[in-house]
Amino acid sequence: VKLATLAPEGTDWHGMLIEMGQEWKKTTKGTVQLRIYPGGVLGDERDMVRKMRIGQIHAAGITTEGLSEIAPDFSGFFVPLAFQTSEDVHTVMAALLPNLEQKLESNGFKLLCLGNMGWAYWFSTKQIKTPDDLKKMKIFSWAGDYKWEQVWKNSGYNPIALASTDILPGFQTGLINTLSTMPLYALAQQIFGIANHMLD
């Protein structure tokens, strides 16, 4: 089984996939072996979905960004500040999950498991205190997610569409200066060294 993920090599996320592969191999007495492609080496999440569709890979560890490529309704889960508590997220997910799984399956995909990677925070090269401060920034936007890019623009923000593998180079060159992500991802990708302001 070939599995792709953006999880950087050597992180806990990557380690959990390795452990899963070892368990599969042990349980099937070596019949099933998992080959992991970490760190976005096979492309962004939208690339991973396309590669699953044509059979180049069999599985992917993806976020709601990749899931929304298959079933657009998943995009509601990455609206900034839409949820105030973990209970909010769990309540909405419990209500919507059966319908979301059905949409995935009608498109030829099966949701094997769903996890929580934590809350996303704004990481930026300059301090952000207000929405107007954020409007002056160059915000990372997923390449290929034209709907959300347009939402940002219509709201007066400045989205810059990039592949996730271009986030760090984007910060290094000044192409972007703001990103909404989880602290562990910012640490694993060394983003925190450049985007050293975190808005809670």
Automatic annotation (TrEMBL):
The Gene Ontology biological process terms listed for this entry are:
transmembrane transport
Q: Which UniProt keywords apply?
A: Signal, Transport
Which family does this protein fall into? Belongs to the bacterial solute-binding protein 7 family.
State the protein's name. Uncharacterized protein
Q: What is the protein's species of origin?
A: marine metagenome
